Amino acid sequence: MSLAADARDAVRKRPFLLAALRAGVVNYSAAAAYLDIGDEETVAAALRRFAADLPELEAASHDATVTMRSGIGLVGEDVDDPDGEAVLSVSGVELAPSGPLTAIIAEGEVDAKLLGVVLSRLAAESVVVDAAGVAGDALLVVVPRRQGATALQIVEDAVDVTYV
Questions:
Q1: Cβ-contact 50, 69 below 8 angstroms
Q2: Which H/E stretch holds residue 11?
Q3: Burial 140-153 (b: 16+ CB within 10 A, else e)
Q4: How far apart, in whole angstroms, are the C-alpha atoms of residue 106 and residue 103?
Q5: Do residues 162 and 114 lie in contact, with contact meaning Cβ atoms separated by under 8 Å?
Q6: Per the record, a Pfam family (predicted)?
Q7: Which residue would you say has higher pLDDT here, 93 or 25?
Q8: Which residue has the higher pLDDT, 60 or 51?
Q9: Strand 93-108 versus strand 138-144 pairing type
Q10: Which of the listed residues 2, 81, 87, 95 has the most CB atoms within 10 Å of its CB?
Q11: Thinking of the domain 60-163, which architecture would CATH place it in?
């Protein structure tokens, strides 16, 4: 494999660097030093060529409604006998109404890319995510009750403008 191919692979393993290349905000020499995969000048040149071939980041908005639902809990831990349907179920683990958590739900034009953006933004704000998922036209993140308002604002902002 060539050094240029190694550089592309190294960037793809670091989505933050791929996004920075697409945004055009990378110091190529610093990125080459960070990757530490070979001669820095050669890697920097490969990164420049790779960046030139990437599509630029574009702003996109989603037609979705965002709501907050408090009182969500983990069945078996927070909730003994759920009174309603599961809010989220993955491989036998269920979150149901009644508990110490808050669910933020976006319904409409949502997808896995938007969920990735939401999770990255929540992590950047140190919001703990207890569960997350997307299926059909619904996206859900579950956070501690005290972080619900912050999470709501972040999800609303991500729905309004996401860079893809």
A1: no
A2: helix 3-12
A3: bbbbeeebbeebbe
A4: 10
A5: yes
A6: DUF7523
A7: 25
A8: 51
A9: antiparallel
A10: 95
A11: 2-Layer Sandwich (3.30)
Q: What residues contact residue 91 under an 8 Å CB cut-off, 6+ apart?
A: none
DSSP 8-class letter at 140: E
CA–CA separation, 154 vs 118, rounded Å? Answer: 7
Three-class SS of residue 5? helix
- What does residue 114 show for φ and ψ, rounded to 5 degrees? -65, -40
pTM, entire model: 0.80
Residue 107 — φ and ψ, nearest 5°?
Answer: -125, 130
Q: Tell me the one-letter amino acid at 115.
A: L
What tokens appear for 80 in the block? Answer: 């003994």
Averaged pLDDT, 26-54: 96
Higher pLDDT, 93 or 102: 102
The whole-number pLDDT of residue 164 equals 67
